[in-house]
Amino acid sequence: MTDDDLIALARAAALKAYAPYSGFSVGCAILSVDGEVVTGANMENACYRLGLCAEQSALTAAQHAFGLDKVARVAVAGGDGSGAELKGDAPVTPCGGCRQALLEASQLGGRDIDIVCASGDGGIIERHRLSALIANGFGPDNLRDSTKHGD
User: From residue 82, how far is each of 1, 11, 27, 51, 67 by CA, in Å?
Assistant: First the structure.
């Protein structure tokens, strides 16, 4: 699957977002090492803190479909999803919390995940490695010295 295909799925997922408070729809598509794809979208809540990011939504679907350890590539796109097509000029990167959740998948799978970030209209694309987006992140690998994981 090409980056363009994955971005198209993320853009389509964004149109399914529930974003009545911010008006900012985000979609995420995750490709597994075996070629399987899942998507997710942000879901806001009147109690703002209880909202769910698109990446978290897609990671939950990935865990159910093929396991977090098989996440290979992620596409994220966001913008104005109020019409028939997603709009927006700025590429969307995962927020800090989503970077942390993606780090969990990265360390479980033992691979640096490619993150493709697109503008709402798909016209601007950035490619990042997760390790660059969350340098020196704290994840499962950091817990090896705990009493639960130690020898």
Answer: 28, 13, 13, 18, 32
pLDDT(79) > 70: yes
User: Domain count of the chain?
Assistant: 1
Which alpha helices (H) appear in 2-80, and where do they start and end? Answer: 3-14, 54-65
CATH classification at residue 129: 3.40.140.10
Answer yes or no: are the C-beta atoms of 46 and 21 closer than 8 Å: yes
Q: Measured in whole angstroms, how far is the alpha carbon of residue 93 from the centre of its chain?
A: 8
pLDDT of residue 62: 98
* Identified catalytic residue from 55, 85, 104, 126: 55
Instruction: Indicate if 55 belongs to the active site.
Output: yes
Amino acid found at 151: D
**Structural domain containing residue 23:** 3-143
* Structure confidence at residue 6 as a pLDDT band (50, 70, 90): very high
The encoded tokens of residue 85 equal 């097509």
- Residue 151 in domain: no
Whether pTM exceeds 0.85: yes
